[in-house]
Amino acid sequence: MSSPWRVLVVDDEALARSNLQLALMDHPRWRCAGVCAGAAEARVAMAQREVDLLLLDIQMPRQNGLSFAAELCGLAKPPLVVFVTAYDEHALAAFDVFALDYLLKPFDDQRFAAMLARAEQALTLKQNAAYAESMGGFLREQGSLANGNACPELDFLTVRSVGLVEKIAMADIEWISAAGNYVELHLQGAAGVRVVLHRSTLSALELRLPKAQFMRAHRTALVRCDAFTSLEVTGDGTYRATLRSGETVPVSERFMKDVRARF
User: Fold this and answer.
1) Whole-prediction pTM value?
2) Torsion of CA 25, 82, 205, 191, to 10 degrees
3) Could you list the residue range(s) of the whole structural domain that residue 34 is in?
4) Closest Cα partner for 221 from 111, 135, 94?
5) Residue 64 included in any domain
6) Are residues 155 and 250 in the same domain?
7) Which CATH number covers residue 189?
8) Per its UniProt record, what SMART domains does this chain match (predicted)?
9) Are residue 118 and residue 10 in the same domain, yes or no?
């Protein structure tokens, strides 16, 4: 087995830190690389060792988790970030700092394992040969654009992970969210919602999507035009749309007019 993925736990509550350490012990492919009581300690820890995944609380003194995650986005190689919090009202804000997942306390073993599986998929893609191949395709696409050539619209996506190549039809995608250097494809099927991680930036993928089928709702979300079922105000200048699957996506004021036109 390859070396375990390294996790840094950041939470101002000692009991919460201990619970996360215990939860990680049941997953031998993961190792707790340290525990920190706040952003300042985490900053020092990350300067001393490499970290693959950050399990980060939101409500912390001095600097909250959202602010710290936004700071990490500026790093050349930021770790994956998963928020672990008792407060659900920050879930939309997590989109803005490219969080991979949002874990509500108290969580059960199954939900924790699902989060780690998603994180492992993202990290493995970075090391996989498919990563170099997909990046090569992305660079060729950008070169085509630089030369003034329009990219043809895609009918399907080829998604690669370890030991698996999957062909996903555009018609099966309800919406797409940004996840750091990846996108998450939210698929609606008979068994419910399924999320698949794909190596691409949201902006690059937007250039290849059928323009009559998808639209921007937020800088971190592309949504199928006919998927909206309701729209609500969540704050001053912030909105949230509910889709046919029951999932919700943030809607920014910039794209509000276009989204309203769909109702």
Assistant:
1) 0.53
2) 70
3) 5-127
4) 94
5) yes
6) yes
7) 2.40.50.1020
8) LytTR, REC
9) yes
Say if 58 falls within a structural domain. Answer: yes
Q: pLDDT of the chain along its 263 residues, tens only?
A: 467 999 999 999 999 999 999 999 999 999 999 999 999 999 999 999 999 999 999 999 999 999 999 888 877 788 999 999 998 888 778 777 788 889 999 899 999 999 999 899 888 876 553 344 444 454 444 444 444 445 567 888 888 765 677 889 999 999 999 987 788 999 987 778 898 888 888 888 888 888 899 999 999 999 999 999 999 988 777 799 999 999 999 999 889 999 999 88
SS3 138: helix
Instruction: Determine, yes or no, domain membership for 132.
Output: no
Burial label for 207, CB within 10 Å (0-12, 13-18, 19+), is middle
Question: What whole-number distance in Å separates Cα of residue 114 and Cα of residue 44?
Answer: 29
Residues 92, 56, single domain; the answer is: yes
What Å distances lie between residue 13 and 30, 57, 102, 182, 208, CA to CA?
A: 22, 9, 18, 31, 45
Amino acid identity, position 39? A
Per-residue tokens: 130: 């498919």
User: Residues near 165 by Cβ (< 8 Å), separated by ≥ 6?
Assistant: 158, 159
Q: What is the total count of domains within the chain?
A: 2
Which CATH number goes with the domain that contains 119?
A: 3.40.50.2300
Q: Are 8 and 55 in contact (CB under 8 A)?
A: yes
Q: Which residues have a Cβ under 8 Å from the Cβ of 143 and sit 6 or more positions away?
A: none
- How many CB atoms are closer than 10 A to CB 98? 21
